[in-house]
Design brief:
By secondary structure, the chain is mostly helical. The chain has 2 domains: 1-46; 48-85. It is 79% helix and 0% strand. It is built from 3 helices and no strands. The chain has helices spanning 6-43, 49-84, 94-104.
């Protein structure tokens, strides 16, 4: 036994319409909030995750290159220091001094 009650049908339609309107309002509010959040982040000049990761990789590569160059400079400085070490001096004796004077003609 089914009862045809126009009042209940009308009430159901009104409720359905209200729910539809509320969902529409909800979507509008979500859209506005999203737009405001995006504008706020754009004004703060934030970077994206992709940009951050790219810069992070570049910095890591630069650090590795710097460490390699530091090692290379240290090796070159060590090699240069070895070249600049004075050769051991020959000991002067009376004979070598006399021989030098004789060769140069000094008295």
């Amino acid at each position: 036994m089914q009862v045809d009650n126009r009042f209940l049908d009308d009430l159901a339609r009104v409720a359905n319409g209200a729910v539809g309107a509320l969902s529409g309002i909800r979507e509008e509010v979500e859209t506005l909030v999203k737009q405001r959040a995006e504008r706020f982040m754009a004004d703060m000049d934030l970077v994206t995750r992709e940009e951050f990761e790219a810069v992070k990789e570049v910095a890591a590569k630069a650090r590795l290159e710097q460490e390699a160059l530091e090692e290379r400079v240290a090796a070159l400085e060590a090699a240069l220091a070895d070249r600049k070490k004075p050769a051991p001096k020959a000991r002067r004796t009376r004979k070598t001094t006399a021989a030098k004077k004789k060769a140069t003609g000094a008295k």
